[in-house]
Every structure is written in C-alpha cells, then in structure tokens.
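Subject: Sanity check before I submit

Could someone independently write out the structure tokens for this chain? I want to compare against mine line by line before I put it in a report. The sequence has 221 residues.
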Amino acid sequence: MKRRIGCLHAHYSNIAYIEHAISSDDLEWIHFVDPGLMSRITSDNNFDEAQAKNKVLEQIEWIAQANVEAILITCTTYIALLEENRLHTSIPILKMDEPFFNSVCRITAPQVLLFTNPATVEGTMGRLKEYASTHGMPIRNIEARIIENTFELLMRGEKERYVEELSTYIKKILVSEKDKKISVAQLSMVEAAYKVERELAVKIGNPLDSLISHFGKLFLN
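---
Independent answer below. Compare away.
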C-alpha cells in the first residue's frame, strides 16, 4: 500500500517541485492549495493574524481527515502561522523550512537569504532564530533581502517572467558580492536558483534540496 502524504501549498506552481523532486512507487502525494489565504494576508488590511491562524488550523485539520500519514507544509508563512498546540490531530506535521534552517545555520560565510514575498520575511526569520536557539546552532552573518515587485508576477500566473527576474537578480549579487553565500528562502524561487546554478556552475541554497535529503530519511529508506 502506498504511503499517502498530504501537502499544503500557497500556490499551484509548487506542486510540480514536490512531485518531481520526491517521487516513489511507494509514495502518493495528496495536494491541497490555497492561494486565497496568502492573497488576503498581503492585501486585506481587515484580515488580521488571528483570522489567518484560524484558517491555517482549519486547513491542517481538513487535510488530516484525508487518510494521510503525515502533512508537509511548503509555505513558510503558513508554517509560521500554525499553532500546533491547538491541533486536534496526532498526524506528524513536516515543516519544509526546518531542514533548510539546518543547512543555513551550518554555513560560516556571510549569507543573503532572498525572498519575493514580503509577508513571509518576518515569520521566516523569526522561525530561523527560534530553530537555531532550540538546536544550539549559531546565527551568523545572515541578511534577509526582498526582491521587490516580483511576487505579484507569480500570483498573476506570470511564472516565466518571475523566474527570469529572480535569476537576473541573483546573478547581479554573485558579481557584486562575491564573498557572500546566497540562498532562496521560498519554494517558488527554486526554479530560478537552479537556472543560475546551471548557467554559472555555482551553488545556490534552497529549501527543496534540504527537504529531499530529510524526507528520504523519514519515508524512503
């Protein structure tokens, strides 16, 4: 029998990343996507944090009833909003950012963490600091940086332009700030990171590579 894993995304484009990166005859992904919540978080001033937390909780409870063995959350904003102490399920919740945080904390050189969604930055950096503190890992010279006016391209479905804008920005940093390690902090940015890696033969950190290794140890060995 296949192992069913529920997966919560903020955008449809993230499904392909997971399906292509982590596939097995013994594994079945059950995807749930809610771009509407992210849209309200970023554009509706009347939609407060308490409402957002309730919505994420509702989503997880819904997925837990879909006969899944575990739930993976790929959106860093949704992860930051989740209050696990309020969940009425014992199903394991896998957070995509934690394996990534582990790899980020192990880098000793100055780092730039790139974002496209401004609403994600505060929650992600807060979780990074919390993860480092909990695991006794140092937070070294890490700068969070937003690639302005790009996230809306993705939300409008202009993925090719989104990838091009991101890859161009990353290349500029590689030229102007050669002493720094670069990582993209959102799953939606991985394609651009891979594009730069192929073209320039460099390594750009990303949450997908970290997840592949972590997930394999949990479910595919």
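---
OP: Matches mine. For the report I'm noting this point. The domain at 98-207 is CATH 3.40.50.12500 (Rossmann fold).
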